[in-house]
Amino acid sequence: MADIVLDKVSKKFPDGTVAVQDVDLEIADGEFVILVGPSGCGKSTTLNMIAGLEDISSGELRIGGERVNDKAPRDRDIAMVFQSYALYPNMTVRENMAFPLRLAKLDRETINQKVEEAAKVLELTPLLDRKPANLSGGQRQRVAMGRAIVRQPKAFLMDEPLSNLDAKLRVQMRTVVSRLQKQLGTTTVYVTHDQTEAMTLGDRVVIMRGGAVQQVGPPQELYDHPRNLFVAGFIGSPAMNFLHAAVQDGSLRTALGDVPIGDRVRRQLEGADAPRELILGIRPEHFEDAALIDDDTRRRGMEFEAPVEIVESMGSDKYVYFGVEGERASAAELEELAADAGADFTGGGASLVTRLSAESAVREGGNHRVWFNLEKIHLFDPNTGRNLTLHEGRAAGAVAD
Amino acid sequence: MADTTTKAKLRWGLLDVIVVVFALIPVLWIASLSFKTPATLTDGKFIPREWTLDNYRTIFQTDQFVRALVNSIGIALIATLVAVVLGAMAAYAISRLDFPGKRLLVGVSLLIAMFPQVSLVSPLFEIERQLGLFDTWPGLILPYITFALPLAIYTLSAFFKQIPWDLEKAAKMDGATQGQAFRRVIAPLAAPGLFTTAILVFIFCWNDFLFAITLTSTERARTVPVALSFFTGESQFEDPTGAICAAAVVITIPIILFVLFFQRRIVSGLTSGAVKG
């Protein structure tokens, strides 16, 4: 049990590329922290530096208050679960799990007892004498976890431990990991590229991009109050809608109509160097079928009409895709997110994803009237990516003053 | 369809038999000669008319052959052991580490393997005489290691590259030192590679004639292939063909044993189950 502190930790490779830049992070004892970001954002490098598998170029890493920059992995007393599981194929499950204990030179009896205990927690007892080759993916994953928990280390490091499992098993193992972490109360750093895993597992989520931390906070805070365009686009599925918005006569001209802006945002836009073009972001669930809302709610938003492209009924609600005219929102962050998702965003008009209530009578092919909540929209500066609607760390929407 | 597969099988079977027979005929011929008496040696029959073990008795009675056999076994085993151990360490470094001059090192070791050995014989002869290594075991072991190492490094680095690096990282995280990670995790997985390399190196050392004949002069370090060429009959005019054949058969036996012994260890798919699902 220990806290982990990263103090301006950087990683520069010999060829000059900077993989991680000045990461400041304080992970409290017993906390479950997720490092998330697209591939190449430096999250795995950061984890490897905590593990000691990668040298720290500059900055300081402290585990339990002690500087460990120059300590070998074996002297840091932390366990790691690898994406590939990295089980020793020549050893049985029992030997795999006993390996760290044997290296620690514990006596045979203690080793046996600890292995049995860990096996029981992970329901591996009947598999103890099998070789990894004879296990299923999920079982191998559990053995990898078992090998980590068996010696009660100061911290767990997990490098995308679930990404090789199929979708159903992944969801199941997610709860196993979560329960195990709560049960053991061990500080855990978990790396993933899957924002759903990040949202569901962690006490706090660290979003990284290009080796730098974008935002740190509890999942809900990142979702509701993204500090910049990248965080907004990365967190949430389906992703936030981004629309081009031109500042004109105290309002925003967008494909959804003229959006009014509040005093506070207006003041920000009055500066000489203020951007004339913005990016408007709205999450799919902040839309609603205009026919289904009461007047009180109606007043807090505005309506528009657009052609319905696709309706996906999820049972509990409907995902409706609208085709909207107008200029596409463009920013470096958005392109990066699109590339990471493997999506091709170079089509004609923008497509709008909305999540409407299941009772909606929306039909494919026709036009439909949709309401959206003005209090929940975000405005981003396309050049810096900064969220302009963020006020004292909270997103207040464009109309609030 | 079934017809064609049977036909195909037959065709392949026939082809295999032809290849095997073609390769084995000289060996069988030697074996057959070794059982013939001097009188029937040149009768041209494949199966001896008169069987005899005299040839074998002769070679084991001569101290010359037994001594050479001991030399051969000792020199080949030591050279193999050293070459495999050194080769394993070098190959591990090459496959795992990025160090300056790595490509140069690999290139130079390849160069050594390609170098015509015959051109090195005279300089080696001079060097070894100066150093007092001439006609000693180390005098042969050293050049054998030199020429076996590139082979060992090449084969082994291919094997090491197949072992997932995550295993080594996992071992380190589990509290192993670099040495422990290598000995307890990597080496057991590289075992098939180690044995394959050992077989190849052993065969190379065992069969060498060039170095053995130039760098030895007495029974002290003379190996079997050379000893064979020094065989003489009872008199100067008698051709010791039968004895040479018997000796040839005898020296094939250790190598067959060696290969059979290690072949059982070459289990493929040893790393399965290590990573992914």
Provide a quick synopsis of the model.
The complex is a heterodimer of chains A (401) and B (277). Chain A is of the alpha+beta class and 401 residues long.
Largest sheet of chain A: 6 strands, mixed
> What percentage of the residues of chain B does DSSP assign to strands (E)?
under 5%
Shape assignment of chain A = elongated
Mean pLDDT of chain A: 89
CATH class of the largest domain in chain A: Alpha Beta
Q: What is the strand tally of chain A?
A: 22
The helix count of chain A comes to 11
Mean of the pLDDT scores of chain B?
A: 85
Provide the CATH topology of the largest domain in chain A: Rossmann fold
List keywords for this structure.
heterodimer; A: 401 residues; alpha+beta; Rossmann fold; OB fold (Dihydrolipoamide Acetyltransferase, E2P); 2 domains; five-stranded antiparallel sheet; 11 helices; 22 strands; B: 277 residues; mainly alpha
Helix and strand topology:
The complex is a heterodimer of chains A (401) and B (277).
Chain A (H helix, E strand, L loop, with lengths): L3 E9 L5 E10 L4 E5 L6 H9 L6 E6 L2 E2 L10 E4 L11 H11 L4 H14 L15 H13 L5 E5 L7 H18 L2 E6 L2 H7 L2 E6 L2 E6 L1 H6 L4 H6 L6 E8 L2 E4 L2 E4 L2 H7 L7 E6 L4 E3 L5 H4 L2 E13 L3 E8 L7 H10 L8 E8 L9 E7 L4 E3 L9 E2 L2 E2 L6
Parallel strand pairs in A: 3-8, 3-9, 6-7, 7-8
Antiparallel strand pairs in A: 1-2, 1-4, 4-5, 9-10, 11-12, 11-14, 12-13, 14-20, 15-19, 16-17, 16-19, 17-18, 21-22
Helix pairs in contact in A: 2-3, 2-4
Chain B lengths: L1 H33 L19 H8 L1 H34 L5 H13 L6 H11 L5 H26 L2 H9 L4 H30 L2 H5 L9 H6 L11 H23 L14
Helix pairs in contact in B: 1-11, 2-11, 3-6, 3-8, 4-6, 6-8, 7-8, 8-11
Keywords (chain A): ATP-binding, Cell membrane, Membrane, Nucleotide-binding, Translocase, Transport
GO molecular function, one term (chain A): ATP binding
Organism (chain A): Micromonospora thermarum
